[in-house]
Amino acid sequence: MSAVKMSEGSVQVEICKAPLFYRQSQPTAGDPKMSVLLLHGIRFSSENWLNIGTLETLAKAGCRAVALDLPELGQSKSAKAPVPLGELAPAAFLKEVCEQLSLSPVVVISPSLSGTYSLPFLLEHQPLVRAYVPVAPICTEKFTAEQYQSVKVPTLIVYGDQDTLGEVSLRNLSNLTNHRVVVMKGAGHPCYLEDPDTWHKALTDFLSTL
Fold this sequence. Notes:
Blueprint: E1 4-11, E2 20-27, E3 34-38, H1 46-51, H2 54-60, E4 63-68, H3 89-100, E5 106-111, H4 115-124, E6 129-135, H5 145-149, E7 155-160, H6 164-173, E8 179-184, H7 191-194, H8 196-207
Parallel strand pairs: 3-4, 3-5, 5-6, 6-7, 7-8
Antiparallel strand pairs: 1-2, 2-4
């Protein structure tokens, strides 16, 4: 097993007024193969990615992984969310995060609430996104089939078969040109938390194709 370096830090993004907390993992030896940005849902934070081993798994797979606490959540509670959500502010927000942390081109992992950030970013800044891993994100209905079809970024759509939101988001996300789908059996909305082993295998298998 390759050794893994874990660290914590904060990043100041102009649009947010206060620093954002993040956790980071990377291989101790050699240059990382790629950068991965882990977002989270409204009841969660970067700590979940630490606890289920996703940060460690990604580093062992040769990636640099950054798990961000989104504005007003986790340890970024004092950071204000970019307003208005659903317009260009979330795209500019993630662009600045990636610039400040030297992540581009980045693989974006985006469950649930974080779709409000990742979808505008994907549609506005395709060249900055190496791959996209939506896990039943919200707000997929805000964009047209034509907008999705214009995206050529490799995409892994993941959801639990007990999650109705996952099925709704799949209907929209399946318009993405270059996508594959993993349905996690017996899993609900936070499917990665319920079955980390299946999640990690699906994720690392996908990343190995990039």
